[in-house]
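anyone seen this seq b4? input:
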Amino acid sequence: MALTLDVILRSAGIDSVDAQAIRHAFVREHEDTGLAGIHADSTDEEILAYTSQQSTKPRIFPVDPPPIWVVFIREGGDRARLWSVLENRGEVSNDGALRTFDLVASEHLADLGNRLVIGWRSPRTWRLNGPTAAGYPVMEIADAQPVPFPGFDRLVLDRPQLQAVMREHRYAAWRTALSSVVGIYLITDTRDGRKYVGKADGAESIRQRWSAYAANGHGGNVELRNVDPTSFRYSILRVFDPATPTRVIDEAESHFKHALDTRRHGLNRN
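predicted toks r here
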């Protein structure tokens, strides 16, 4: 049995009833709105802005569109390559000719962006109801392009990025690098600026510690169990060779806790 988009959507927790599919084509000008179109070099921000504005005429766009928009880019007459999944937070303006929606990028299918290609059976149709699109065949899932490791000193990750690094094939080099060192890392709660200094030492690499954070948010740390991890940001303060004595790593951890004052004004308890 052929693989369909429905299987992909369900694997991401998306019910096709709650979704619609849009396929953009590269055009200089949107035929309905007269606004500038998109092209091969359009940025994600430009494509998002383009998607958020919909004409009121002709009336092929639903009055009450669903909460999930699965957006593709046309690739030939009968193919569509996934650009992104967007969450629709509602209509924010309507001047009688143009409707504007508050759309934000979702983590749904983020690892399949630019990789998933489906067959688009209706070449003249740019929008489909979710259940219709769900029956369209998957034509290709391309291999993910490797992402170069930026270096320990430049590594700053939010929680979704951390989870992607620990899960996706394109970040294999990152996991190898993080497996090769122990050291001191920093977790910042970006909502209020509070910080937590942690360490990975002995037989536990930074990758192992961060894998635990990616899985449950707190990594077993009492200090973090009651804090919502969705706004956490992760970075590395100092790395050591795994053969470094534990005493040296403990001293570095204590130094950074003192320097950043994370015991009194942060998330460290000791």
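The chain has a mean pLDDT of 91. Residues 246-259 form the longest helix (14 residues). kinda curious what u guys think
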